[in-house]
Amino acid sequence: MDKNRIILLSILVLLIVSIIIASIDIGTKEKKSSKISSFKIMQTGPGIGIVNIEGEIQTASSAGFKDIGGSDAIIEQLNEFETNPDIKAIVVRINSPGGAVAASQEIYEKIMSIRNKNIPIFASMADVAASGGYYIASACNKIYANSGTITGSIGVIMISPDIQKLLDKLGISINVIKSGKYKDILSSVRDITPQEKQMLQAMIDSTYQKFLQDVANGRNMSISDIEPVADGRVLTGEQALQSKLIDHIGTFEETILAAKLEANLPENAAIYRQRLSPIEQILMSVKSGLGFTSKLKTNELLKTENYILQ
Question: What's the CATH code of the domain at 97?
Answer without folding.
Answer: 3.90.226.10
